[in-house]
């Protein structure tokens, strides 16, 4: 499986995007060679921590592609979490069992990230489309962009929690979402981290973010996305409060 890191942007476009990401979003560069290097380093880190990731072929040369701008990974047949949880053929009980299994893995990774102050153990783009079921294993991928600050790892974990909750809702639908959120509250071992996820999205200390939250609250009566970051965090917070 070949992944090419060069896209349609011009060099000026890559430089501008990198400036925004590095200076304002606390993330790594979007330059193709930098993304390839970061992904390689993250694969090694996650693998060393016991998480299943793609194997890679590091000495492969492909004619016609710029050196350092691509990577060749093992081909892994499997089912994306996004596909699995969206498929009505899989029973609710089966999905809940799979979600509980994920929660254990998820929590272990969050613990490691916080203990080591290691932002590279946090999925920058938290989504069920970046987890795969392969031969009864959970396989993780998409590490080309990561957060940089070691001081803010707990915040990054909170952000990832809400990103996954939001992605989960999109897959299972509004009718089953509360059931899965209840399972999350009951089976994720660190309730304080779930509460921190709610506070990150809904009670953030940053004044600009609080202002944005206020605008979202003002507009909530209007028709909007059912699985926005704010609505996902608010619903998780409601279930947390109801189960105190």
Structural class: alpha+beta
Helix count from the secondary structure assignment: 9
**Percent in strands:** 5-15%
Taken in chain order, the helices and strands follow as EHHEEEEHHEEHHHHH
What's the story with the biggest beta sheet? Answer: 4 strands, mixed
Describe this structure in words.
This protein is of the alpha+beta class. The chain folds into two domains: 2-73, no CATH class; 79-242, no CATH class. It is 55% helix and 9% strand. It is built from nine helices and seven strands. It has helices at 11-24, 32-48, 81-86, 92-116, 153-172, 174-187, 191-202, 207-219, 229-242; strands at 2-4, 52-53, 56-57, 70-73, 79-80, 131-134, 137-140. It has a four-stranded mixed beta sheet. The protein has a three-stranded antiparallel beta sheet with strand order 1-4-3, covered by helices on one side. Helix 5 (153-172) runs antiparallel to helix 6, helix 5 crosses helix 7 (191-202) and helix 7 (191-202) packs across helix 9 (229-242). 29% of the residues are buried.
């Amino acid at each position: 499986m070949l992944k090419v890191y060069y896209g349609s942007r011009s060099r000026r476009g890559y430089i501008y995007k990198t400036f925004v990401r590095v200076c304002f979003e606390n993330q790594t560069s979007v330059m193709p060679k930098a993304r390839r290097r970061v992904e390689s380093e993250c694969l090694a880190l996650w693998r060393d921590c016991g998480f299943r990731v793609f194997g890679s072929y590091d000495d492969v040369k492909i004619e016609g592609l710029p050196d350092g701008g691509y990577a060749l990974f093992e081909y892994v047949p499997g089912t994306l979490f996004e596909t699995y949880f969206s498929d009505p053929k899989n029973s609710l009980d089966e999905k809940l069992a799979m979600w509980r299994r994920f929660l254990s893995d998820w929590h272990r990774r969050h613990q490691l990230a916080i203990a080591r102050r290691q932002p590279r153990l946090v999925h920058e783009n938290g989504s069920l489309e970046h987890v795969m079921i392969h031969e009864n294993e959970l396989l993780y991928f998409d590490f080309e962009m990561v957060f940089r600050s070691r001081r803010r790892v707990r915040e990054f974990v909170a952000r990832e929690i809400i990103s996954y909750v939001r992605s989960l809702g999109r897959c299972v639908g509004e009718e089953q979402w509360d059931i899965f959120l209840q399972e999350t509250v009951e089976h994720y071992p660190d309730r304080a981290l779930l509460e921190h996820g709610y506070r990150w999205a809904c009670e953030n200390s940053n004044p600009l973010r609080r202002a944005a939250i206020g605008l979202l609250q003002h507009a909530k009566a209007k028709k909007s996305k059912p699985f926005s970051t704010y609505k996902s965090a608010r619903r998780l917070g409601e279930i947390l409060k109801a189960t105190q």
